[in-house]
Every structure is written in structure tokens, then in C-alpha cells.
Amino acid sequence: MRRGLKWGDSVLLVVLLLPLAVALPRLGGLAGAPEQWLTWVGRGTGILGLSMMLLAGVVSCRVPGFDRPFGGLARLWRLHHWLGFAAFILVMVHVLALGLAAVPSSLAAAVATLFPPFSHGGVWLGWLAWVALVVFLAPTFEFFGKPHYQRWKRLHLVSVAALLLGLWHALLLAGEAWPWWLLGIAGLGAIGWRKGMAPQRRHPYRIEEVVPLARDVVELVLRPEGDGIRHEVGQFVYLTPLDEQLAAGRGEEHPYTIASAPSDTRLRIGIKDLGDASHALQAVVPETRVLIEGPYGEFFGRHFPQRNMLWLGGGIGITPFAGGARGFTGEAGLEGHVHLFYLANSPDRAYYHDDFCKIAERSEEFTYTQHYYRDRGPFTEAFLREHCPDFTEREIYLCGPPGMIAHLQRLLAGQGIPASRIHSEVFDFL
After folding, report:
1. Are 352 and 259 contained in the same domain?
2. For the chain, how many structural domains are there in total?
3. Which of 6, 104, 342, 373 has the largest CB neighbor count within 10 A?
4. pLDDT in tens, 343-377
5. CA 194, 199, 246, 321: dihedral to nearest 10 degrees?
6. If you ran DSSP here, which 8-state letter would residue 289 be given?
7. pLDDT tens digits, residue range 240-294?
8. Burial, 117: exposed, middle or buried (Cβ in 10 Å; 0-12, 13-18, 19+)?
9. Is 305 exposed, middle or buried (0-12, 13-18, 19+ CB in 10 A)?
10. For residues 139 and 235, what is the distance between their CA atoms, to the nearest angstrom?
């Protein structure tokens, strides 16, 4: 997880405020009667709300490399989610403020402001955009449980209707059209790329081998049919299986972290049974085709050669460290000494244990320590200090289950390690 503002955030903020800045002379000042102030707030929040909706579309384009100025795709998608949610709140304030601004005249005037005759098409387009936005965002509130991954992705098509209707609403009512044309082309163009062109640029691979790592965990070894992709340590891809015998997930894309070294001619992906699609992939047929999109992310994107590294991994979150360890010859771009702690429940759940042992034997710059919960209980500061006395001086990378990450962050913060030196990655609805 990348903390702090990135330069991509600054660019996004400038673009976000552009329509409001252009409209300011026409909006007038904030001084005056309460109804004037409410009118200003209503119009201003409407402008910002639509700008956020369109920018949420822009950052959803998912072009490899586009995520880096924002601190990785996981952070970019969190930004996408917050833009959508903030847009909804601002649109609600927009409607409420404009209605209240007309109340001093009369209640009838307030109702007429919000619900004018149908001849005022611009206002009713705004209401239609609001309805589409409510339908799209309703699952995020989880009234009926966590939304199904693929249904949630298909529901994004409703957001396109909200954007089109909202943009039409603004073009009919705004005095300055060019900022909306600019943002509209960018937002809808990004969605068009994501849904139309991007799927055509996926890379075909063949499943060369399915390697069992543990119960309900396999590693897929993928052979490119063409040039394949080039990746860095800690990145991830979207995998779309095409095996017609799969019980679930055929034709669906899901994110998986790369477990192979950048120099490996094969792409290796560790997959744990965590849902219908990942369960079906446990028995995928070798030599069937898959499509790969990416790579994305920058888990190890920030390099600090003046400091050694501490890796703390558990569960299927060990995969980026597997890729890093396998490429620990300098070509992976990871300088300095690395100490990896593998946090597993028991030895049979340490998926890449044998690989790590062999790498530690070959390289003096790589140290490997195991911690098994069933034997030792929770991971403690005493255990960490015993095996890695200089851990407070290292750059620290965490990857694993949410509970493990939360425990480690509290432990490390308790030792006075600044948050800027602790890096983690969380994938949710990517």
C-alpha cells in the first residue's frame, strides 16, 4: 500500500478542479442571502460530482504502466472507488442545496426547481443519471452481502449510462461546454478502451504444467505462444482461462501475482482455492490456452539500495516473494540483503519452502526463516528480533491475509518504524 500523495494525484486534482475553475466567474460570490449561498453550493457540488464521475472512468482504463504515477493499480482502483463514492455524495448535496435554495420563495417553487415540467429535459436527464448511479452503487453498500465478482463487473455497464446522462445534463445546462467535452471524451474513451480494445491486446499462453504446492494450492506454469509479457518482481496479471472443461471461471479474468523471476521464460502463477474460479483452476487441463493481461502493480517499485530489506509473507501472499527470491541474482533489480520470514500455520502450508531453502543455500544475500503458528503461536517482536536483530533499520514489505497484515503493522509500528518504510499490497475488486 503506497502512502502519501503521488504526482499522478496532483494531475488528477488539477483536472478535477478545471470545470469548477472555468465556471467560477458565472457562479458569482458566496456573499448574500442564504438562498444565494445554497445556489452556489448546489451548482458547485454538481460540477465537482460530475467531474469525479468522469475521472473515475478515466482511472479505470487499466493500461499497463498507467498505474505507476498513482502508486500501483491496487491504489489506483481504491482511488477509482473513492471518486465514485464521493461523486454520489456530492450529487446528493447538489440536489438538496438547489431545492433548499428555492424554499424561501415557497415550497411549490422548491418542488418546481427539482421536478419541473418535462419540457425541461436537462433537469430530467440529471435525474436519470442519478437513478443509474444509485443502481450502480447500491451493491457497494453490501445490503445483501458482498457482491458477486463477475456480476459486479457487469454492473459497471450501468455506470456508462450514468456518465452519458450526466454529461448530457451538464452540456445542456452549463455555460461553458469545452471542459465537459474534454472530460467526457477522456472518461468515456477510457471505458471504451477498457471494454473494447484492451481485451484484444491480451497475450495468449499455454498451461505447460500444473504443479501441486499444497492442499488447494497449485502453481500454473505458462508457456507463451508469442513473445509473452515482460514483468518486474512483485507485479501481477489478469488471467483468463479458456479451458472448456472448467466448472467455473471460463472466460472470466481474475488477478494473480506473478511468482516467476523476470528472466524466466515461463510465467509462474500461484493460485489458492478462494472461490469458484480459483477452485476450478486447481484441476485445469495442461496445454489449454489462457489469456494474460498486464503486468500491473509496483510492490517493489520503490528501491532503497541504502537499506536492506525485510520480507514478511504468508498464505498465497508469499507469491511476490517467490518471484523476488527466484530472481535474486541482481537482474530482478533488488539490491542489498533480504531476510524473508515465511509465516505459515504449519510446514504443510509453506508452499515455496523448498525453493526458499535452496535459494538461501546459494546466495549469501538471501536469508530465510520460517515461523509456524501451530508451533509458536502468533508472530512476535521477540522472534523477529532474535532472527533479524537489525529489522528496525530495514525497508519492510508485507503480503498475506488481511489479519496477518494488520497484526504485523501494529507490531512494527510499536517498534517505532515509520509507516513510510512499511509497504503492503491489498487486492480487492481489481
Report:
1. no
2. 3
3. 342
4. 999 988 898 999 999 999 988 889 999 999 999 99
5. -80
6. E
7. 999 888 888 888 888 899 999 988 999 999 999 888 888 999 989 999 999 999 8
8. exposed
9. exposed
10. 29
Question: Grid cell 446528493 — which residue?
Answer: 92
Which of 274, 296, 318 is the C-terminal boundary of a domain?
A: 296
Are 190 and 61 within 8 A, CB to CB?
yes
CB neighbourhood size of 135 (10 A): 14
Report the C-alpha gap between 66 and 63 in whole angstroms.
5
Pairing state between β 366-372 and 338-344: parallel
Q: Tell me, yes or no, whether 189 and 222 share the same domain.
A: no
Rounded to two decimals, the pTM is: 0.77
- Residue 133 to residue 136: CA distance in whole angstroms: 5
Per the structure, the complete domain to which residue 397 belongs is given by: 309-424
- Residue 385, φ and ψ in degrees, nearest 5: -70, -35
Percentage of residues in the chain having pLDDT higher than 70: 90
CA 40/CA 52 separation, integer angstroms: 18
For residues 270 and 358, membership in a common domain is answered with no
Residue 276 lies in a domain: yes
Look at residue 138 and tell me if it is in a domain.
yes
CA dihedral sign, ordered 212, 213, 218, 220: negative
Instruction: For residues 334 and 399, state if they share a domain.
Output: yes
**51 and 178 housed in the same domain:** yes
Q: d(Cα 79, Cα 121) in Å, to the nearest integer?
A: 32
Q: Are residues 61 and 154 in the same domain?
A: yes
Helix, coil or strand: residue 156: helix
Same domain, 258 and 349: no
Cell triple for 145:
452481502
Say what the pLDDT of residue 46 is: 94
Rounded Cα–Cα distance for residues 256 and 290 (Å) = 13
